[in-house]
Design goal:
The complex is a heterodimer of chains A (146) and B (428).
Chain A lengths: L4 E5 L2 H4 L5 E3 L4 H13 L3 E2 L17 E5 L11 H15 L13 H21 L11 H5 L3
Parallel strand pairs in A: 1-2
Antiparallel strand pairs in A: 1-4, 3-4
Helix pairs in contact in A: 2-3
Chain B lengths: L1 E8 L2 E4 L4 E3 L2 E4 L1 H8 L5 E9 L5 E10 L2 E5 L18 E7 L1 E6 L8 E4 L14 E9 L5 H22 L7 E6 L3 H6 L6 E9 L5 E5 L2 E2 L6 E3 L1 H5 L3 E5 L9 H5 L2 H9 L5 E10 L3 H18 L3 E5 L5 H14 L4 E8 L20 E6 L3 E4 L4 E4 L21 E4 L21
Parallel strand pairs in B: 1-8, 2-4, 6-23, 9-11, 13-18, 13-19, 19-20, 20-21
Antiparallel strand pairs in B: 1-12, 3-4, 5-11, 6-9, 6-10, 7-8, 14-15, 14-17, 16-18, 22-24
Helix pairs in contact in B: 7-8
Classes of the chains: A alpha+beta (146), B alpha/beta (428).
Chain lengths: 146, 428
């Protein structure tokens, strides 16, 4: 990717609302693994990789904002980002059998999870110029792959 | 600054023609209270109910709890920036309906609201089983945004609390508590020989539905600042949180923050309590770095020897707690951390998401994952099916007979990180 800032997310609500987005068709652990790949490529975390106030098995969505610093061709590895993402992977891996999936979840509950995840990211996305391309509507979820 | 809390003890609620207190009974004019709450276009329906300690009543999903208070004298009004003007508070006299509480219930973010049982084993875990609760039931207009619904619920709770106390102005207090804080010049010179300490008061601020307000200002937008502890008692800090119920610092627990009360009690004996530094818990790493550094800079500027740091929530905010800790310690300031744990149902998992070697003095408010069985209640105010989606519950938490099996996470205030909880330990 050539963009400098990127949202890695599995939240379908953000997929269509954020212009620079790497959408992961998987669970929160897959989002963390992809984010770790980016960190190893020299990207730095702009948002903390852990969710606030819910354990890994209590929410189906995870969104992480990263930035690629200047310094072509490949910036140095940011050790603090690596430490945070590895620690988060440790927390999620410990509960990987129980991580919540949105498959089969009642629509109202799934919408709540998607909206909260998006709300938690909104301020950060806005600050870094990635929010919003269009307003947030849970109708987007119903469109599925939009 | 000098603040007198004029506490009128409430041990019972009743409906009546006027809202007033007599012999510990708070009589509420239901129609008048509903008229105070009427007119909010975001709300389709507002109703009021009563729940008393010991009754077979369950309330869920609970959004917030607020203690009825109103200014008798002094600049400003209660809940400044919310129901009163933004004038500074924390001085003069404030009437407190001690033992009464306003509880708001509504399905805002369904998995992040809480349960209050007024009797049974669940009652042992929530401080709000011991308060006489005026329960405001709030239903939103179809299709409005969740944050608009949250705002409407928050304002309804604050308005109801202010209304109840205002109507009881003139009632003689059963007890008057006086809190006095000198100006910084005098405070610095006071109690030579005792260590100077401050309270680093972390407030949830991760998003529009994970927010706290200081004088009406969204805390995620502040830099850490100094606050006189008596300002908190007048409602300068208001909860707007839809986070896990057990360690949500609801407005009542801010008003009655036991950290502040205990630090006042030990002030001049064990240490010299200089005041509060309030800070936030934002999502971006840049904010976490900026606000932890700024908080510790304020602490260093005050010249404190020690900081008591309380957290709100868990997971992502653990990173803020830990940054605050090591930055203070490496500046020569001793810290004590107040948090809770998510150690799994068996207690074997890592309790905090982050840690540092400097965090060697830590107080826990308990393990939020401990499982509890809540037997059925005769009456449920709210929506019992929410037990299946509430954080700490799961599909099947609610049995056909009304029994609920959940983790303590679902019980309001069960592991309060302000220490406003029924769990505790004693040195014997």
């Amino acid at each position: 990717m050539s963009c400098r800032r990127l949202l890695v997310t599995n939240n379908p609500l953000l997929r269509n609302a954020v212009p620079s987005c790497d959408f992961i068709d998987g669970n929160p652990l897959a989002v963390l693994l992809r984010s770790r790949d980016y960190v190893h490529l020299g990207w730095i975390l702009l948002s903390h990789p852990l969710y606030g106030n819910l354990r890994p098995h209590q929410h189906p969505y995870r969104s992480i904002l990263l930035e690629r610093p200047d310094g072509e061709p490949r910036p140095a590895l940011d050790l603090q980002s690596l430490e945070y993402v590895e620690n988060a992977l440790g927390v999620y891996s410990a509960e990987k059998e129980r991580i919540l999936s949105d498959k089969g979840m009642p629509e109202g509950v799934r919408d709540d999870f998607a909206v909260i995840d998006a709300e938690l990211m909104k301020e950060s996305l806005s600050r870094y110029g990635l929010w919003p391309r269009e307003s947030l509507k849970t109708d987007l979820l119903k469109g599925g792959e939009g | 600054m000098r603040l007198e809390l004029h506490k009128v003890k409430i041990n019972k609620l009743a409906w009546g023609d006027t809202t007033s207190v007599r012999a510990g009974v708070l009589t509420v004019n239901k129609e008048e209270l509903l008229s105070v709450l009427a007119g909010d276009e975001r709300l389709a329906k507002v109703d009021v109910d009563i729940a008393l300690p010991g009754e077979s009543v369950r309330i869920l999903p609970v959004k917030d709890v607020v203690e009825p208070r109103f200014k008798m004298e002094g600049p400003g009004g209660v809940f400044p920036g919310m129901v009163s003007d933004v004038e500074s508070v924390g001085e003069g006299k404030t009437l407190v309906l001690s033992g009464a509480a306003v509880v708001t219930t509504g399905k805002i973010v369904r998995f992040q609201e809480g349960i209050i049982d007024m009797t049974g084993p669940g009652a042992d875990y929530t401080p709000y089983s011991g308060t006489c609760n005026v329960v405001i039931i709030l239903e939103n207009v179809e299709g409005i945004d969740k944050h608009d619904y949250e705002t409407a619920c928050r304002m309804a709770g604050l308005k109801a609390a202010a209304y109840l106390a205002e109507k009881c102005l003139g009632t003689p207090a059963d007890e008057v508590e006086t809190y006095e804080t000198p100006c910084l010049k005098d405070a610095m010179a006071a109690h030579p020989g005792l260590p100077k300490v401050a309270y680093l008061y972390m407030l949830q601020s991760q998003g529009l539905l994970h927010d706290t307000y200081l004088y009406g200002v969204d805390v995620k937008k502040i830099l850490p600042t100094f606050l006189n502890p008596t300002e908190v008692m007048d409602g300068a800090i208001v909860s707007g949180n839809c986070v896990s119920a057990c360690d949500k610092n609801n407005t009542y627990s801010h008003q009655n923050n036991p950290v502040i009360h205990h630090m006042f009690r030990r002030h001049g004996k064990d240490f010299n309590f200089l005041g509060c530094i309030v800070t936030n818990e934002n999502v971006t790493l840049a904010d976490k770095k900026r606000c932890s550094s700024y908080s510790i800079k304020l602490a260093k500027t005050l010249g404190v020897d020690g900081l008591l740091i309380s957290e709100e929530g868990f997971g992502n905010p653990d990173a803020d707690l830990i940054m605050n800790c090591w930055k203070a310690e490496r500046s020569g300031i001793k810290t004590t951390l107040l948090t809770d744990e998510y150690a799994g149902q068996d207690g074997a998992s890592q309790s905090l998401a982050d840690s540092c070697p400097e965090g060697d003095a830590c107080v826990t408010a308990g393990n939020a994952n401990e499982v509890i069985v809540l037997p059925p209640m005769k009456k449920v105010i709210g929506v019992p099916e929410e037990a299946n989606v509430i954080a700490g519950g799961w599909q099947g938490s609610l049995a056909a007979d009304g029994t609920i099996t959940v983790e303590l996470q679902a019980i309001l205030g069960a592991t309060s990180e302000l220490g406003f909880t029924k769990l505790g330990a004693y040195t014997i």
